[in-house]
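Render this sequence as a predicted structure.
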Amino acid sequence: DTPRILHVDTAAGIYSGAAFQPLPPGWSGLTLSTSDQVRVRAFGSVEPRSADAEELINLLRSYDSAALIGGMAAEYTDAQEGAADHLPLALIWIGLTTILLLFLFTGSVLLPIKAVLLNLLSLSATLGVITWLFQFGHWQWLTGSYTVTNRIDTSTLVMIILVTFGLSMDYEV
């Protein structure tokens, strides 16, 4: 009955909407991991790495807290939630540490603050260009043809943020 679930494979058969199809004779179906666990596979109508998939995974997890939900969509949801939970604190920690180290290095209060602010401006411009080019598919004539997915992977963004900030700070020092 869950919206955006096309069908569910179980050890007994396949559920598609309100219809149930038992497995053919001799077909083993899905194997059970243990006597107290049942494995089912749910196939959704959403892209696994999308906001719709996040909503679907959170909805499925809200049904039963004992259910373990895996797959590409669940991994994406967990990565998004992990980044949302921990990235702001990590960025604050990196910024304050950078300001402290530059203060100790230069003895100036203004220069470290200026360095971090200018690097944040540079980082924003970098992420803006990457989003414009790859998330929205502009300038494919220059970069080559690729599939426009309308999103950029979170781990890629975190890596770009760290590398760009590190290179900018190296230039600043």
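Summary. The mean pLDDT is 86. Residues 58 and 65 are 11 Å apart (CA to CA).
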